[in-house]
C-alpha cells in the first residue's frame, strides 16, 4: 500500500514546552486509512489534522464499536526520536479488533505509517526533560446505520499530542479507594480490549472516589468482588514480604505493556516475581502485619504511580512508610532511562524513528 502525504499549508504555533499538560494540544497532521469490505484497508494517508465529518447515525456513536491505543515517542539528549515497544501496541490493537469484530490491520504497515507520521511531525516531539509525544491510534465503526451488528466500514486514524512531564513536582504517593459496588470488567466481557465502553463504564466509580478525596479506584473482580484487577486505568503491583506480585491476566484485565516491562525487568534483576490472583484481604492483612512494602500502578502515561494508602470500607492501610518505595523508583528510573536513551536497551524495546 502506498502512503500519501499532504502537508498542512499553515502549521500551528508550537506550545510552550515547559507548560504542556496532557491531551489538549494536537500536532499539524494525522494519519487516516479506511476499510470497506470490497477494498479491505485502503487509502492510507498523512494529511492535515482536521475534524472527522460524521453522519449522526455513524455506528461508533451509538454502539461504541471502537478501539484505541496509547504510546509515546521520546526525544533523547542527542536529539534522536524513538518509540518504546510500538509493535506490542499494534499487536494489542489487533487483539482489541478481534474482540470488537473489527478487521485486523497489517501491523508492520501500521508501524511504518506511524514512523512516517512522526517523521513529518518531528519538530513536535518536545525537548524539555521528561516530556514526550503521546500517540493515539484509534479505529472506529463508520457505517451510518442504526441496529446492532458489526459495521462494514471503518476509519483508522492516528493523532499525536505533545505532553508534559507526568511528575513535574516529583513522585507523590496517591490514596486509592477499593470499589465495592461497581466493576470495570467481567470475565467473558471486553476488559482485556482497549475499547471505548470500558472507559465509560469506569467513570461513575472514578467520580465517586474523587468526590471522597481519593485519586484512583482500585477495581476488584466482577464475580466475587474479592480479587484485585487494576487501579484506575493502570495495572497494579504489590510488594509483599519481598515478592513483586501483579494480578494474572485472565480476560478482564488490560495486558499493559508497562506491566510486562516491569515483569521482565524484575525477572532480569533476579527479584521474586509472581503473576497470580491476589485478594484484597491478603493485601489488607499484609498492610496490618507491616508486610505491605509497596503498591504501584503501571501504565504508559505515568510509567509507575506509587500508592500510599488503601481504603476498603472502613479499613485503611498505609503502604510501607507512606513514602515512595525503592522498587517503584527503580522500575520508574530503569524504564524511563531506556525510553529516553539514557541507558542501554537490554530487551530490544526501542524502535528508532529519526
Ligand atoms: C485499563 C488500562 N489498564 C492498564 C493500562 C496500562 O497499559 P500500558 O502499560 O500498555 O499503557 C492502560 C493504559 O493503556 C489502561 O487503559
Detailed description of the structure:
The protein has 354 residues and is α+β, with helices and mostly antiparallel strands. The protein has 8 helices and 18 strands. The strands form 2 sheets. Strands 1, 2, 3, 4, 5, 6, 7, 8 and 18 form a 9-stranded mixed beta sheet that branches. Strands 9, 10, 11, 12, 13, 14, 15, 16 and 17 form a 9-stranded mixed beta sheet that branches. β12 and β13 form a beta hairpin. The longest helix has 14 residues, at 86-99. Bound molecules: pyridoxal-5'-phosphate. The site of pyridoxal-5'-phosphate has 13 residues, from α6 and β15.
Which blocks of ≥5 consecutive residues have pLDDT under 50? Answer: none
Let me know the average pLDDT.
Answer: 97
Termini distance? 22 Å
Beta-sheet strand percentage?
A: 25-35%
Helix content range: 10-25%
Bound molecules: pyridoxal-5'-phosphate
- Using the CA coordinates, give the radius of gyration: 21 Å
Structural class: alpha+beta
Brief overview, please?
By secondary structure, the protein is an alpha+beta fold.
Features:
354 residues; alpha+beta; nine-stranded mixed β-sheet; 29% strand; binds pyridoxal-5'-phosphate
Topology (SSEs and partners):
Elements: E1 4-5, E2 29-36, E3 40-48, H1 59-63, E4 66-68, E5 71-75, E6 81-84, H2 86-99, H3 107-120, E7 132-141, E8 154-163, E9 174-178, H4 196-201, H5 203-211, E10 216-220, E11 228-231, E12 235-240, E13 243-246, H6 257-268, E14 272-275, H7 280-288, E15 292-299, E16 303-312, E17 315-318, H8 326-339, E18 350-352
Parallel strand pairs: 1-3, 9-10, 9-16, 13-14
Antiparallel strand pairs: 2-3, 2-8, 4-7, 5-6, 5-7, 6-18, 7-8, 10-11, 12-13, 12-15, 15-16, 16-17
Helix pairs in contact: 2-3
Amino acid at each position: 500500500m502506498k502512503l500519501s502525504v499532504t502537508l498542512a499549508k499553515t502549521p500551528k504555533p508550537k506550545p510552550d514546552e515547559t507548560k504542556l499538560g496532557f491531551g489538549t494540544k494536537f500536532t499539524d497532521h494525522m494519519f487516516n486509512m479506511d476499510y470497506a469490505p470490497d477494498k479491505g484497508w485502503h487509502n492510507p494517508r498523512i494529511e492535515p489534522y482536521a475534524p472527522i465529518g460524521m453522519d449522526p447515525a455513524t455506528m461508533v456513536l451509538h454502539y461504541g464499536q471502537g478501539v484505541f491505543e496509547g504510546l509515546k515517542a521520546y526525544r533523547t539528549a542527542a536529539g534522536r526520536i524513538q518509540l518504546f515497544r510500538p509493535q506490542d501496541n499494534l499487536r494489542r490493537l489487533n487483539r482489541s479488533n478481534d474482540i470488537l469484530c473489527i478487521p485486523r490491520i497489517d501491523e508492520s504497515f501500521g508501524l511504518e505509517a506511524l514512523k512516517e507520521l512522526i517523521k513529518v511531525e518531528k519538530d513536535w516531539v518536545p525537548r524539555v526533560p521528561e516530556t514526550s509525544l503521546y500517540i493515539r491510534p484509534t479505529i472506529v465503526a463508520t457505517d451510518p446505520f442504526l441496529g446492532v451488528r458489526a459495521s462494514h466500514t471503518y476509519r483508522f486514524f492516528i493523532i499525536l499530542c505533545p505532553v508534559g512531564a507526568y511528575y513535574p513536582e516529583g513522585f507523590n504517593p496517591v490514596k486509592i479507594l477499593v470499589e465495592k459496588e461497581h466493576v470495570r470488567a467481567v470475565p467473558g466481557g471486553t476488559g482485556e480490549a482497549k475499547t471505548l465502553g470500558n472507559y465509560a463504564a469506569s467513570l461513575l466509580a472514578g467520580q465517586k472516589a474523587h468526590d471522597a478525596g481519593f485519586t484512583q479506584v482500585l477495581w476488584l473482580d466482577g464475580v466475587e468482588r474479592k480479587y484485585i484487577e487494576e487501579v484506575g486505568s493502570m495495572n497494579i503491583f504489590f510488594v509483599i514480604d519481598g515478592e513483586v506480585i501483579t494480578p494474572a491476566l485472565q480476560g478482564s484485565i488490560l495486558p499493559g505493556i508497562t506491566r510486562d516491562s516491569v515483569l521482565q525487568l524484575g525477572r532480569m534483576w533476579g527479584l521474586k516475581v509472581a503473576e497470580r490472583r491476589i485478594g484484597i484481604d491478603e493485601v489488607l492483612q499484609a498492610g496490618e502485619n507491616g508486610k505491605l512494602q509497596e503498591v504501584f500502578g503501571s501504565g504508559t502515561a505515568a510509567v509507575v504511580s506509587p500508592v500510599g494508602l488503601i481504603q476498603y470500607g472502613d479499613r485503611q492501610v498505609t503502604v510501607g512508610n507512606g513514602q515512595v518505595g525503592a522498587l517503584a523508583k527503580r522500575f520508574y528510573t530503569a524504564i524511563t532511562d531506556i525510553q529516553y536513551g539514557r541507558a542501554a536497551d537490554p530487551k530490544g524495546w526501542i524502535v528508532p524513528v529519526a
